[in-house]
Automatic annotation (TrEMBL), chain A:
InterPro entries: ThiF/MoeB/HesA, ThiF_NAD_FAD-bd, Ubiquitin-activating_enz. One of its GO terms (cellular component) is cytoplasm. Transmembrane segments: none annotated. It comes from the Eukaryota. Pfam families: ThiF (PF00899). This is SUMO-activating enzyme 1A. Residues 14-273 form the THIF-type NAD/FAD binding fold domain. GO terms for molecular function: SUMO activating enzyme activity. One of its GO terms (biological process) is protein sumoylation.
TrEMBL record, chain B:
Zn(2+) binds at residues 153, 156, 422, 425. Residues 432-524 form the Ubiquitin/SUMO-activating enzyme ubiquitin-like domain. ATP binds at residues 19-24, 43, 51-54, 67, 112-117. The lineage of its organism: Eukaryota, Viridiplantae, Streptophyta, Embryophyta, Tracheophyta. It comes from Actinidia rufa. Transmembrane segments: none annotated. Keywords: ATP-binding, Ligase, Metal-binding, Nucleotide-binding, Ubl conjugation pathway, Zinc. This is SUMO-activating enzyme subunit.
Amino acid sequence: MDGEELTEQETALYDRQIRVWGADAQRRLSKAHILVSGLKGTVAEFCKNVVLAGVGSLTLIDDRPVTEEALSANFLIAPDENNLSGKSIAELCCDSLKDFNPMVRVSVEKGDLSSFGGDFYDKFDVVVVSCCSQTAKKKRDETIECQLQYTSFEEAIAVPWKSLPRRMSKLYYAMRVIERFEEAEGRNPGQTSIEDLPKVLKLRKEVCEAHSLNESSIPDLLLERLVTGTREFPPVCAIVGGILGQEVIKAISGKGDPVKNFFFFDAMEGKGTIEDISEPNNGS
Amino acid sequence: MASEQQLTAIKGAKVLMVGAGGIGCELLKTLALSGFQDIHIIDMDTIEVSNLNRQFLFRKSHVGQSKAKVARDAVLRFRPHISITPYHANVKDPDFKVDFYKQFNVVLNGLDNLDARRHVNRLCLAADVPLIESGTTGFLGQVTVHIKGKTECYECHPKPAPKTYPFIHCIVWAKDLLFAKLFGDKNQDNDLNVRSSDATSSSEHAEDVFERKKGEGIELYGRRIYDHVFGYNIEVALSNEETWKNRNRPRPIYSRDVLPFEQIQQNGNVDKNLVADDPSSVSAMASLGLKSPQDIWSLKDNSRIFFESLKLFLVKREKEIGNLTFDKDDQLAVEFVTAAANIRASSFGIPLHSLFEAKGIAGNIVHAVATTNAIIAGLIVIEAIKVLQNDANSYRMTYCLEHPSKKMLLMPVDPFEPNKSCYVCSETPLLLEVNTHCSKLRDVVEKIVKAKLGMSCPLVMHGSALLYEVGDDLDEDMVANYAANLDKVLSGLPSPITGGTILTVEDLHQELLCNINIKHREEFDEEKEPDGMVLSGWTQSPVKEKDDNASINNGASASHAPSQAVSLEGKEDSEIEIVPVGTGSVLPGKKRKLLDISEDTVPYLSSITDETSSKNKLEEIDDDDDGDDVVMLDDGCSDGIKKKRLR
């Protein structure tokens, strides 16, 4: 493999993981550049994981000021420091992350995802977006794992439901309904409550009819949990952030194939499932 | 997302975490974020550089400090108002008694070794406190829930013995025999053949070839050792034709065929090491200009490293000779052991390994990444919340897989019921077959009570007669009495043990008591039953070895890897070792179908071996890092898993 040998310092620090994925994979990791937008609990977990793994650089976007909600599942921000400073979430997280691994360059980019052009995105090997609307996700046309040979996120969610595998995770359908609702009402992701349930159930009916899907594929209880349970649950952040970190590491290190292409986890049943959602005929 | 009831349960809970390592750091963070207010944490370890790639609560400046204490301080920075009580102590310390455990609502294990896991399991059973057990290795992990009387305990089923593969034997030989003989305590027992050909014929007090003769040059001495262990001793072994009937015969290797004497003399450039005043930084690789620990050296290079590292020990670290024990962080020791193991491997036609790999095997080094530990910690907290709410129907054992099986990466499985014949959580007696006229009480205490039953402070009784106990407060007479008993054969004890006797053994500290029915038996098969006794009712699965392995030990029974060592798995084998578990003793309704990966046994997933080694890899996991080993897979998922292969 091209590229320099790992330094003695790197070999000592990364010894236990080099035993898992090998020195070549470690070298590739150290050359990867990652962009993340939206630093809530799951993404904070993800950032910790890739910084510890020793990626080349990590760039953070999140201009929001710190609120109590932002603190609830984010261990990167100490409650006292936010009172004092006028710093953004990204800036505060950046300070903590640098500390985790001095060999990784962690920096902050100000602005909104939509304000950057293609040149900007070209600098990165992986882009992870969170807490943004479906429109913004489409705009970036990145799946969360950003694998070129994989179906893009936009293509994936455009796949007609009736051509999806029959035992598709119910969460997939439910989340599309919630997204549609938030979009129609002009809400931010997660800005829902129990009062919204009747409207959401009505929307489910419309969507299911359009896709010729039986409404029972999206149980009431599941939608109710999704509209009410909007606060992050830290164990789930750790699990989803862990899977996301692991798959991104696989993608950039070349050690194993990342999952294709959606991961769902439901803490009630404890199952973590993979679904391949792509056009059946483009067979990538 | 936690409901009101969940939050109430979380806020009122007092939890004990055992282990502040790989899983522990993640777990403490996730517990704190989830709202837990009263957390106690035990860990005896201090922080090392190799922890920092995943134990994210620690920094380089913390190296050498207590893990439990530093972890507490780090978490209080983002959750200042909760209570975290650290203990920088061994969980087996007698201070942590049953009463200590009783104050907790649930115990969460993030441990790295079988011994401590068994200990905590017993105390949780005695205190009737739920235990959540976990382990990870590489991308694999598992979480299990153990509730007295409801689900199986951690010891309901024996853990399969570590699997082993030929190169391991070369490492064990190089480390425990050759290294120990040359640089360790001279008074230690050592099975290495030290007699040379002229000596065997002559007298009883023949000299030890490992003694350096007066005025003997270092190069000559090195060559003599080399030729003896890799040449002569192999010839001796070959002379026993019986041994080699069904095995590949090894090839004796002499230094003259690999490296002419002149080259040995010019071997290293010791000057390069002269600059290094610190004996701990002396390196044969540095003297010889070999750079990458990932490279596999030729037989010739291994021989050069052998001579050079021997020379450096004699020249630079003379004072330590006689007191050295192998340490994975001692560069020169790792170099010597790698070279010696590889030369021996050449002799037996076994693939050679890089220093990096050899170090991993010799030092029982774990394979560990942050992500798996984070996922497992999240799963532990989810189970802990169910346990606190007493929601028994939703308890799950969960496996974290490397490749999806039935579309699942995280696979929940219903817990098993307790094994009714488990000697730990039920009161079923064990059966010991032993020759009561030959075996001494010491053999039973060491090989059975301590090694198999895992008791650390045992007491042995026959009826009301106390035969043996340990403790600080015994008076001298008793100590002398017990010492005398240890050296008596069973039938010759003051209260004789014979066929039909029921022996009671107890560990007061673990509050575990069990009865052993004694059955007298005259003969034991030396090879298959090396202990000279057989324990049943609960037994360790036999070690799986390739046939040719035994011979590698030169006929001598080299000490094998420690019992909690872990096995490495073959690339050609399925990813997860499938060991049929005797179902006879298990409830018919809930059979333990599948597989059992021992908790310390995990497949060797590393890609490092892709290019380099061909065959079965084995690894011993445990020891220096915590919270990083695995596990077992059970239940209906076997098919999917069986098919999975290492890539």
